[in-house]
Write a structure and sequence with these properties.
Elements (H helix, E strand, L loop, with lengths): L1 H28 L1 H16 L12 E3 L6 E5 L5 E6 L4 E6 L7 E6 L6 E4 L4 E6 L2 E6 L4 E4 L4 E6 L5 E8 L4 E8 L5 E7 L5 E4 L4 E6 L8 E7 L4 E9 L3 E4 L5 E7 L6 E7 L6 E2 L9 E3 L5 E5 L3 E6 L8 E5 L8 E6 L5 E6 L5 E5 L2
Length: 357
């Protein structure tokens, strides 16, 4: 009996030794295979596949609520806008609107106007005065109340404004750096309400809005270097102007005093000749292509495009206005690749995108 037990014990030891040797041999022979399994596990866990989306077609909602002063961002695919009630500046991606918007920054609410510069610079006008913001460096500067309706140039480096003394009833149209360290008076003025915009680094467009004494609107161009003021359009009722990207051409609309209709016109500032486009669109619902000749407009029933420089104007329908409320379109602009129109619906305050045909 003890002899049998001894044989069984020896047999068990031999089997255990063989099994252990085989296991160790397998482990030593394939260390890379084991590590590969670990690596594959980590890859599966942390390298999730990128979210895929389909670019929108037709008409689509870009914001769910009110959005003011929209502008195309530097990359040409995002739209920045201002939420007046909260003071939020948000960004929405045109080609993926379902992703919602992203908070960029928060400034004072209830701005009456915002002009945008490059590199996250902006200037907001309020009833209590204007504030310059550099969102990149978290810098802000409030301007004194004598600075009326200041606007940034496209770089965000310079501002144009009216410096006006209410006590004397006089002032100047002036320019300065955005931090207001150096300023320069251009021309004297006795009007405080000029609406100013930059055409290029030295030229300004000045609109004299209606007043109680004069209900008509006039348009001027001011050369800030030569200090020369040119009258372009005078005494127009309900004048709306949209400038070409090169600042050399305008499409504009006003109400004809004889017919009472709101007509659309074109002018090349080199020749300064008014040309009727024989269209009844409002220029506030129009925008220029980067080619400085094609114009897109929202009409009552459709969105159209045409060559404003052509001898004979032929419109092409780029999208119908079903469910688009084209008659309420304003603040219109094109994306960087010009495959989408972006506009604000003045009826509900939301931003919309429209894929062009």
């Amino acid at each position: 009996m003890p002899h049998k037990f001894l044989k069984f014990f020896v047999f068990t030891l031999v089997c255990s030794a063989v099994f252990l040797a085989g296991y160790l041999f397998t482990q030593n022979r394939n260390p890379l295979d084991q590590q590969a399994l670990i690596n594959n596990s980590l890859v599966s866990r942390f390298n999730e596949p990128e979210e895929k989306y389909t670019e929108p077609t037709g008409l689509f909602e870009l914001t769910s609520g009110e959005a003011n002063f929209p502008i195309l961002s530097g990359n040409g695919t995002e739209v920045w806008y201002y939420v007046p009630r909260s003071g939020e500046i948000r960004s929405a991606t045109v080609k993926n609107p379902l992703a919602g918007s992203t908070l960029v920054a928060k400034i004072q609410p209830n701005a009456s106007n915002i002009s945008w510069g490059a590199n996250k610079m902006l200037l907001a006008n309020y009833s209590t005065g204007a504030v310059y913001y550099d969102l990149g460096s978290n810098f802000s500067k409030k301007y004194e109340t004598k600075i009326k309706n200041p606007v940034l140039d496209k770089t965000g480096v310079k501002i144009a404004y009216t410096h006006f003394n209410e006590m004397t009833g006089s002032g100047n149209v002036s320019i300065a750096d955005s931090k207001f360290e150096v300023s320069k008076n251009i021309i004297p003025t006795r009007f405080a309400g000029w609406q100013i915009s930059w055409l290029n680094e030295k030229m300004l467009a000045l609109i004299k809005p209606p007043t109680l004494e004069n209900t008509h609107i006039s348009l001027f161009i001011l050369d800030t270097e030569k200090k020369e003021l040119q009258n372009i359009l005078d005494f127009k009722n309900n004048l709306k102007v949209v400038w070409s990207p090169d600042g050399q051409k305008i499409v504009y609309s006003y109400i004809d005093p004889y017919s009472g209709q709101n007509g659309l016109y074109f002018m090349d500032l080199v020749v300064k000749k008014e040309t009727s486009l024989n269209l009844l669109h409002n220029a506030s619902g129009c925008t220029w292509s980067i080619d400085n000749k094609t114009v897109y407009c929202a009409g009552k029933d459709s969105f159209v495009s045409f060559d404003a420089t052509a001898t004979t104007i032929e419109t092409q329908v780029v999208a119908n206005s079903q469910n688009a409320d084209a008659a309420y379109a304003a603040n219109m602009f094109l994306t960087g690749t010009e495959d989408y129109l972006i506009f604000k619906n003045t009826k509900n305050g939301k931003l919309y995108g429209l894929r062009l045909n």
